[in-house]
């Protein structure tokens, strides 16, 4: 099987790493990839959000499967174009991507499917925003209705800050969704879908804010871990039955079948599981941890989904050890990141037992002597992933990898998976 992966981040590097473990996968290509991806598979410098360029490359390669990583190509209709060309693709059509690209649409589908979620109101001006804020009270949850790369949500006790975020969204031409605040820890669950059937992966938890103890602004994600020892037994089956399968069924009834990953962002509240949001692709950085543990061949699994042949009764195989990944970010991220700094210590980190370094914002550039150097080229630069005998061991191994790597201005959180490793995460009592 020859597979083309579209995207340039750590999520795509994780997908490629897992695909290379599949004995049925004979060849993997990436477009456009990054410096780390280019070390393991051929990369192609195309615009992955161009339906014409993506389809042309897949045809030139005679790809058996195309896997779309980021949301932008999905919104641009790349999956639609590939399907029209007769190429199996893992990723939803543009119409189905509205589950991610419009939070208002997602709420509509959830209402139709009877899916438990936070009460919400859509606002298109500040008057409507204030009315909804008065209705739900503090903490105020204000979400950009459109795509925001995981950074379009503000949760605050300050009404002025809430209104300022809403005003910025309106100025950019977007509506906002105001929601009731959900108590309880958050969970990310990836569910593979073939338009009719669903197969869940292992639940994970990510860390969205830049600083320890969830301080500072939202980011695309600063680390993750899996599995979650504090979840109740049967949690995943409950989410599939109450959330994922009803949504897939609702999308099929709308003649917009969902093929790809339904990313269920969940809160485990005193009133039970509630959906925070959906994404239409693998999440980053949760993918890095989840796929590190997957032992079922990934290429065959994704091809089955693309061809409408998922077995909903299939029991996936997992490494029993937990996985932790820690994101290393550039100076000034999540603002405009500093780039162009040489990254040192990569080889030292990669030599550590059960540690993998996945690249995101990196580029390879020649130095004055003609030697290729790995440089920072984005906000989130690397994810250091480790497997361990328990969460504490996985954390220690991941952070040993982080300590081996450096560049000027590098920043990372020091508390990824710490509370879980210490047994300090609890679910609110009803």
Describe how the helices and strands are arranged.
Elements: E1 2-7, H1 10-19, E2 27-32, H2 35-38, H3 51-61, E3 65-68, H4 71-75, H5 78-84, E4 89-90, H6 98-101, H7 103-113, E5 120-123, H8 126-136, E6 140-144, E7 153-156, H9 159-171, E8 176-179, E9 186-194, E10 198-200, E11 205-206, E12 209-211, E13 215-218, E14 223-226, H10 235-253, E15 259-269, E16 272-279, H11 286-293, H12 298-306, E17 323-329, H13 346-350, E18 355-359, E19 362-366, E20 372-376, E21 380-387, H14 391-404, H15 418-421
Parallel strand pairs: 1-2, 1-3, 3-4
Antiparallel strand pairs: 5-8, 6-7, 6-8, 9-10, 9-15, 11-14, 12-13, 14-17, 15-16, 17-21, 18-21, 19-20
Main features:
alpha+beta, Dna Ligase, domain 1, D-amino Acid Aminotransferase, Chain A, domain 1, 4 domains, 4-stranded parallel sheet, 21 strands, globular
Low confidence ranges: none
Mean pLDDT: 95
Taken from the alpha-carbon principal axes, the silhouette is globular
Number of strands: 21
